[in-house]
Design brief:
Length: 409
């Protein structure tokens, strides 16, 4: 196991837990509480070790002018705002540390020897984690599919991990859809049948969640794939399958064949107004990490850019938006959507999946707080963006780039 893999597992280890377990009176009396409290500190451990290794790997800590750099400075503004303005500094600093942990470990993977290999390993971990969550929610999905349970906005997770809304489950399902589809299409061995089975289960889960943000993501990645692949008779099934899922799950079931219900923001606009009011009270720096939950009575802001501004002010919001914009600029400027057809299969699978993940999370960012705080979206997004950036850097359009010596772990 490489050091980047170990640290990325630590970053994932903080999922479905938080700081309140460390403050619980049952901290040393209940095993589950102790376990959850220990997991809550794993990303902080990854941050500490990652920073030390990053300083050892590079004598000059320069950030590239792309997504990772913009997100890094966005996080620094948020941490500064936490120190200066937050009402609950310990909570804000904890969540700021979690955000930084993901950035630092991903940044480290970019700067070790064979960065594309390192990043592929992180992407594989993201896929494995998404598959695990998909399996945990599968019994409830099957109950709904067989008519043995009513449709619910919440899924119960086992092992005391709490509840997850359908948007979260749909997000995990679409992540698996993307990776399983790419591996199913481009695999030539018996694993193809395994990925086909995973694709079926993830599409079924997405179908029964009726999550509009994930269904929108399905439409986006389907169009993106068809644009990349071009007209190819082997892949004509993509359009009809995606269209049927969108029509049945989104329009007929979720919206009950009512276009207004399909486009309804379900109260998000009122939360956005409240969030913008808080931004107006501190437009320069925002209010620090986790400010939406602290200042809006635990409400989720459901918009990445407003979420970024309430945490890091207008400047932080601009830097956060620049992370998405710069990723697409790199793709378009380097004609990656056209070049990917001729990429060797070993590199094509993670590269194509990374572009589709970016497409999904870009569309999701307008209706969920995608990557604005530590969470699944951030962990899935970072290695995908980094893989795109590193691949383009090592495969320039015109001139060859001489790679700097890298450490091997």
């Amino acid at each position: 196991m490489g050091i980047a893999v170990f640290l990325w597992l630590c970053v994932w280890g903080g999922m479905f837990t938080d700081l309140h377990y460390l403050k619980s009176p049952k901290l040393y009396a209940d095993f589950l509480t102790t376990f959850q409290a220990g997991r809550a500190l794993l990303p902080i451990l990854a941050l500490f070790v990652g920073m030390i290794l990053l300083m050892a790997v590079r004598s000059h800590l320069t950030l590239h002018k792309a997504s990772l750099g913009y997100l890094f400075f966005y996080s620094l503004i948020g941490i500064m705002a936490t120190l200066l303005l937050a009402t609950k500094k310990d909570v804000g600093l904890y969540w700021g540390g979690l955000f930084l942990s993901a950035l630092v470990v991903d940044w480290l993977a970019e700067n070790l020897e064979e960065p594309l290999v390192q990043l592929r390993r992180l992407i594989d971990i993201n896929l494995f984690a998404s598959l695990v969550v998909l399996v945990m929610t599968l019994p409830q999905t099957l109950d709904v599919a067989r008519g043995q349970a009513p449709y619910s906005q919440f899924f119960e997770l086992p092992f005391g991990l709490g509840q997850m809304r359908v948007n979260g489950v749909g997000r995990f399902a679409l992540i698996v859809v993307i990776f399983a589809f790419v591996r199913f299409i481009y695999s030539r061995n018996i694993l193809r049948y395994f990925w086909g089975f995973c694709l079926f289960l993830s599409l079924m889960t997405l179908f029964y969640t009726r999550s509009r943000t994930s269904l929108l993501g399905l439409a986006v990645v389907s169009l993106l794939y068809v644009f990349i692949q071009g007209i190819n008779l082997r892949f004509l099934f993509v359009g009809p399958v995606a269209a049927y899922i969108l029509w049945m799950s989104g329009y007929k079931w979720r919206a009950q064949e009512n276009l207004e219900k399909l486009l309804d923001l379900t109260g998000r606009e009122y939360t956005w107004e409240r969030g913008l009011e808080q931004v107006g009270r501190s437009p320069l720096f925002g209010w620090g990490f986790h400010a939406d939950r602290i200042m809006l009575d635990s409400e989720h802001i459901h918009n990445s850019y407003i979420h970024a501004m309430i945490q890091s002010g207008v400047l932080g919001g601009i830097l956060f938006a620049a992370a998405f914009v710069s990723a697409w600029v790199i793709i378009i400027k380097n004609k990656l959507l056209q070049r990917i057809r001729n990429v060797p299969e070993k590199e094509k699978k993670p590269l194509l999946a990374s572009i589709m993940i970016l497409g999904f999370l870009t569309s999701r960012s307008f209706f969920e707080s995608t990557a604005a705080f530590y969470g699944v979206d951030l962990l899935v997004l970072l290695p995908s963006i980094s893989y795109i950036f590193v691949w383009v850097r090592s495969h320039p359009l015109e001139e060859e780039i001489v790679e700097k010596p890298r450490w091997k772990w």
